[in-house]
């Protein structure tokens, strides 16, 4: 079984300050992990993904995430927040080792990010 | 098309009516997924297809829900005898061949409201 826990439902940051969105996962197999972003009235967009290569993953718009197996975490960070980063962010896990389940993406409940001037 | 297209974008229906939600995936994408997203929650898996074959329908909540993809392209999610608890955003996604690390591209969703 796989599951994802996003530790913060809301995060508020000032423009220009760092952003940290926390995610913990559990997986029976070797997981693939993703972060998706959802802007209002738009579809989900992939920010980055971890698939067993480098543990530090760089994504679009200056975001990056680090896979830490010992902590079962995949936290998302950005050094300096921009107003356009205001959106909802989802941490997602997929079991890579289970051939029938890879198509099932397990989403976290989401973290709403507010960026203040 | 350039992206995954879903129609209608918004659907209001009366309780007890049947609804059909359509998904047009990115051309050439083999895999197609349906998810449901309740307000304030993350999307939940419903079912997925490789080509026309339904590979997994374990997420469909009950037998009022069904999905098909008869020609391996466009897919329809049908909800019979709708109930108020079916109100949600229904999202479709598609991806290239069934590699585990393939990116899924999502459509903008269909907002279903059952009154």
Task: Walk me through this protein's architecture.
The complex is a heterodimer of chains A (117) and B (115). Chain A has 117 residues and is mainly beta. Chain A has strands at residues 3-6, 10-14, 19-21, 23-26, 31-38, 44-50, 56-58, 64-68, 73-78, 87-95, 106-107, 111-116. In chain A, strands 2, 5, 6, 10, 11 and 12 form a six-stranded mixed sheet that branches. Chain A has a four-stranded antiparallel sheet with strand order 3-9-8-7, with no helix packed on it. A two-stranded antiparallel sheet of chain A has the order 1-4. Chain A is globular, with a radius of gyration of 14 Å. Chain B has strands spanning 5-7, 10-13, 19-24, 31-37, 44-50, 53-56, 65-68, 75-79, 88-95, 105-106, 110-114. By secondary structure, chain B is mainly β. The mean pLDDT of chain B is 92. The chains are: A mainly beta (117), B mainly beta (115).
State mean pLDDT of chain A (0 to 100 scale). Answer: 89
Uncertain runs of chain B with pLDDT below 50, 5 residues or more? none
Low-confidence segments of chain A, given as residue ranges, are: none
Mean pLDDT of chain B: 92
Shape assignment of chain B: globular
User: Helix/strand-derived class of chain B?
Assistant: mainly beta
User: How much strand content do the residues of chain A show?
Assistant: over 45%
Largest sheet of chain A: 6 strands, mixed
Q: Identify the quaternary structure here.
A: heterodimer
Defining traits:
heterodimer; A: about 120 residues; mainly beta; six-stranded mixed β-sheet; four-stranded antiparallel β-sheet; 12 strands; B: about 120 residues; seven-stranded mixed β-sheet
